[in-house]
Amino acid sequence: MFERFTKDARAVVEGAVGYSERAGAEAVDEEHMFLALLDREGSRGSFALASLGAAERRDSVERALAETRRRGGLSRAETEALSGLGIDVSEIVSRVEEAHGAGALEAGRRGGAGRRSGRRPFTQGAKETLTQSLRLALARQDRHIGDEHLLMALTVRPGVLAEVLADHGVTYETVTRVLYGDGEAKAG
Protein backbone atom coordinates (compact mmCIF):
# COMPACT_ATOMS: atom_id res chain seq x y z
CA MET A 1 0.00 0.00 0.00
CA PHE A 2 2.87 2.42 0.80
CA GLU A 3 3.79 2.59 -2.89
CA ARG A 4 0.44 4.34 -3.52
CA PHE A 5 1.31 7.13 -1.06
CA THR A 6 2.26 10.54 -2.39
CA LYS A 7 5.48 12.22 -1.29
CA ASP A 8 3.49 14.24 1.26
CA ALA A 9 1.72 11.20 2.70
CA ARG A 10 5.03 9.35 3.01
CA ALA A 11 6.50 12.37 4.80
CA VAL A 12 3.61 12.26 7.28
CA VAL A 13 4.20 8.59 8.04
CA GLU A 14 7.94 9.15 8.41
CA GLY A 15 7.28 12.20 10.59
CA ALA A 16 4.94 10.15 12.77
CA VAL A 17 7.73 7.65 13.38
CA GLY A 18 9.94 10.55 14.46
CA TYR A 19 7.29 11.85 16.86
CA SER A 20 6.90 8.38 18.31
CA GLU A 21 10.64 8.06 18.88
CA ARG A 22 10.95 11.50 20.50
CA ALA A 23 8.00 10.78 22.78
CA GLY A 24 9.54 7.49 23.88
CA ALA A 25 6.38 5.67 22.76
CA GLU A 26 6.28 1.94 22.21
CA ALA A 27 4.64 2.37 18.81
CA VAL A 28 3.45 4.94 16.28
CA ASP A 29 -0.13 5.98 16.93
CA GLU A 30 -2.74 8.25 15.37
CA GLU A 31 -1.68 11.24 17.46
CA HIS A 32 1.85 10.99 16.04
CA MET A 33 0.37 10.94 12.54
CA PHE A 34 -1.66 14.06 13.24
CA LEU A 35 1.30 15.95 14.70
CA ALA A 36 3.31 15.07 11.60
CA LEU A 37 0.43 16.36 9.45
CA LEU A 38 0.58 19.67 11.32
CA ASP A 39 4.25 19.96 10.34
CA ARG A 40 3.53 19.80 6.60
CA GLU A 41 3.54 22.86 4.37
CA GLY A 42 2.33 23.20 0.81
CA SER A 43 0.27 20.01 0.77
CA ARG A 44 -3.44 19.38 0.49
CA GLY A 45 -3.64 18.25 4.11
CA SER A 46 -1.78 21.34 5.33
CA PHE A 47 -4.09 23.52 3.20
CA ALA A 48 -7.15 22.00 4.89
CA LEU A 49 -5.68 22.38 8.38
CA ALA A 50 -4.68 25.99 7.71
CA SER A 51 -8.09 26.79 6.20
CA LEU A 52 -9.81 25.39 9.28
CA GLY A 53 -7.51 27.27 11.65
CA ALA A 54 -6.06 24.12 13.23
CA ALA A 55 -2.49 24.96 12.28
CA GLU A 56 -2.62 28.22 14.22
CA ARG A 57 -4.28 26.47 17.19
CA ARG A 58 -1.61 23.77 17.38
CA ASP A 59 -0.77 24.58 21.01
CA SER A 60 -4.41 24.18 22.02
CA VAL A 61 -4.65 20.86 20.17
CA GLU A 62 -1.45 19.60 21.78
CA ARG A 63 -2.66 20.64 25.27
CA ALA A 64 -5.96 18.82 24.73
CA LEU A 65 -4.14 15.68 23.59
CA ALA A 66 -1.74 15.88 26.55
CA GLU A 67 -4.66 16.15 28.97
CA THR A 68 -6.26 13.12 27.36
CA ARG A 69 -3.02 11.14 27.71
CA ARG A 70 -2.85 12.21 31.34
CA ARG A 71 -6.34 10.67 31.83
CA GLY A 72 -5.04 7.37 30.48
CA GLY A 73 -6.51 7.97 27.02
CA LEU A 74 -10.12 8.28 28.14
CA SER A 75 -12.32 10.39 25.91
CA ARG A 76 -14.59 13.06 27.32
CA ALA A 77 -17.60 10.79 26.73
CA GLU A 78 -15.94 7.96 28.66
CA THR A 79 -15.02 10.34 31.49
CA GLU A 80 -18.60 11.61 31.64
CA ALA A 81 -19.98 8.06 31.63
CA LEU A 82 -17.73 7.13 34.54
CA SER A 83 -18.80 10.30 36.33
CA GLY A 84 -22.42 9.17 35.92
CA LEU A 85 -21.44 6.02 37.81
CA GLY A 86 -19.93 8.11 40.60
CA ILE A 87 -16.32 7.68 39.47
CA ASP A 88 -14.31 10.91 39.47
CA VAL A 89 -11.57 10.39 36.87
CA SER A 90 -9.79 13.60 37.90
CA GLU A 91 -9.55 12.33 41.46
CA ILE A 92 -8.22 8.97 40.30
CA VAL A 93 -5.63 10.64 38.07
CA SER A 94 -4.53 12.86 40.95
CA ARG A 95 -4.14 9.91 43.31
CA VAL A 96 -2.24 7.80 40.77
CA GLU A 97 0.08 10.68 39.92
CA GLU A 98 0.61 11.39 43.62
CA ALA A 99 1.69 7.81 44.16
CA HIS A 100 3.52 7.15 40.87
CA GLY A 101 4.45 10.52 39.39
CA ALA A 102 3.07 12.83 36.74
CA GLY A 103 1.95 11.08 33.57
CA ALA A 104 1.73 7.66 35.21
CA LEU A 105 -1.45 6.81 33.32
CA GLU A 106 -0.12 7.71 29.89
CA ALA A 107 -0.65 4.72 27.65
CA GLY A 108 2.05 3.52 25.28
CA ARG A 109 4.95 5.17 27.07
CA ARG A 110 7.92 3.22 28.16
CA GLY A 111 10.73 3.59 30.58
CA GLY A 112 14.25 2.32 30.44
CA ALA A 113 16.42 1.75 27.40
CA GLY A 114 15.44 2.64 23.88
CA ARG A 115 14.56 0.25 21.09
CA ARG A 116 17.39 -1.95 19.93
CA SER A 117 16.84 -2.02 16.20
CA GLY A 118 14.32 -2.60 13.48
CA ARG A 119 11.19 -0.78 12.52
CA ARG A 120 8.97 0.97 14.99
CA PRO A 121 5.60 -0.81 15.08
CA PHE A 122 2.29 0.92 14.43
CA THR A 123 -0.63 0.60 16.82
CA GLN A 124 -3.77 -1.10 15.59
CA GLY A 125 -5.45 2.31 15.39
CA ALA A 126 -2.64 3.73 13.24
CA LYS A 127 -2.83 0.71 10.93
CA GLU A 128 -6.59 1.15 10.64
CA THR A 129 -6.06 4.84 9.83
CA LEU A 130 -3.72 3.91 6.98
CA THR A 131 -6.24 1.37 5.69
CA GLN A 132 -9.06 3.92 5.99
CA SER A 133 -7.01 6.45 4.02
CA LEU A 134 -6.78 3.92 1.19
CA ARG A 135 -10.55 3.37 1.31
CA LEU A 136 -11.19 7.11 1.20
CA ALA A 137 -8.84 7.58 -1.76
CA LEU A 138 -10.54 4.73 -3.64
CA ALA A 139 -14.00 6.12 -2.84
CA ARG A 140 -12.95 9.46 -4.35
CA GLN A 141 -11.41 7.58 -7.30
CA ASP A 142 -8.01 9.07 -6.51
CA ARG A 143 -5.04 7.13 -7.86
CA HIS A 144 -2.79 7.93 -4.93
CA ILE A 145 -3.14 8.32 -1.17
CA GLY A 146 -2.29 11.87 -0.17
CA ASP A 147 -1.89 13.47 3.21
CA GLU A 148 -5.43 14.79 2.82
CA HIS A 149 -6.67 11.18 2.86
CA LEU A 150 -4.70 10.58 6.06
CA LEU A 151 -6.32 13.66 7.60
CA MET A 152 -9.80 12.56 6.55
CA ALA A 153 -9.13 9.08 7.94
CA LEU A 154 -8.09 10.55 11.29
CA THR A 155 -11.36 12.48 11.48
CA VAL A 156 -13.61 9.47 10.82
CA ARG A 157 -11.95 7.06 13.23
CA PRO A 158 -13.85 7.20 16.51
CA GLY A 159 -11.80 8.07 19.54
CA VAL A 160 -9.95 10.74 21.42
CA LEU A 161 -8.11 12.26 18.48
CA ALA A 162 -11.28 12.72 16.43
CA GLU A 163 -12.94 14.25 19.51
CA VAL A 164 -10.08 16.75 20.00
CA LEU A 165 -10.04 17.55 16.27
CA ALA A 166 -13.80 18.13 16.25
CA ASP A 167 -13.42 20.46 19.25
CA HIS A 168 -11.02 22.47 17.06
CA GLY A 169 -13.30 22.53 14.01
CA VAL A 170 -11.62 19.69 12.10
CA THR A 171 -14.18 17.05 11.12
CA TYR A 172 -14.60 14.86 8.07
CA GLU A 173 -17.31 17.22 6.83
CA THR A 174 -15.25 20.40 7.24
CA VAL A 175 -12.14 18.84 5.68
CA THR A 176 -14.04 17.52 2.66
CA ARG A 177 -15.85 20.86 2.26
CA VAL A 178 -12.51 22.72 2.20
CA LEU A 179 -10.86 20.25 -0.18
CA TYR A 180 -13.68 19.28 -2.52
CA GLY A 181 -16.78 21.23 -2.03
CA ASP A 182 -19.46 23.75 -2.66
CA GLY A 183 -17.73 25.95 -5.22
CA GLU A 184 -15.35 27.34 -2.59
CA ALA A 185 -11.61 27.58 -3.11
CA LYS A 186 -10.18 24.12 -3.44
CA ALA A 187 -6.76 22.79 -2.56
CA GLY A 188 -4.72 22.22 -5.63
Automatic annotation (TrEMBL):
Protein's GO biological process: proteolysis
InterPro entries in alphabetical order: Clp_N_dom_sf (IPR036628), Clp_R_N (IPR004176)
Domain (Clp R): residue spans on this chain: 2-188
Entry keyword annotation includes rRNA processing: no
Alphabetical list of Pfam families matching this protein: Clp_N
Region feature Disordered, mapped onto this chain: 103-126
Transmembrane segments: none
Name of the protein in question: Clp protease N-terminal domain-containing protein
Alphabetical UniProt keywords: Hydrolase, Protease, Repeat
Top-rank taxon, per record: Bacteria
GO molecular function ontology, one term from the record: peptidase activity
PROSITE patterns from the UniProt entry: CLP_R
